[in-house]
Amino acid sequence: MHIRKKMVSAHLSKELRAKLGTARRSMILRKGDKVKVARGEKRGHIGKVLEVDLKSMKAYVEGLVKRNAKGIEKLIPIDPSNLLIVDGDFSKDRQEMIQRSKKPESKK
Fold first, then answer.
1. pTM to 2 decimals?
2. Rg, Å, the chain Cα set
């Protein structure tokens, strides 16, 4: 499972990369991250990650639902590669990852 966790990562938006000052392009997806759907029918939808399923390597985003035959709404599983992290909790361990990949200062 610790190996699968690394596989469930999504790109960081350009604005977030600039705000964090990192050269890192992607990060492990977590519950609570604010994401934007980049590909597929639901392109452009922004919502919070409700669940990250490591077994199927899919993420479930708030507001992305479909109705089944009985009329019950179910969350749609989304592949993390189709998501863009817009905002999230960058606490201790994530902050350490960002520090390791700081953008080099331009020489002027």
1. 0.85
2. 15
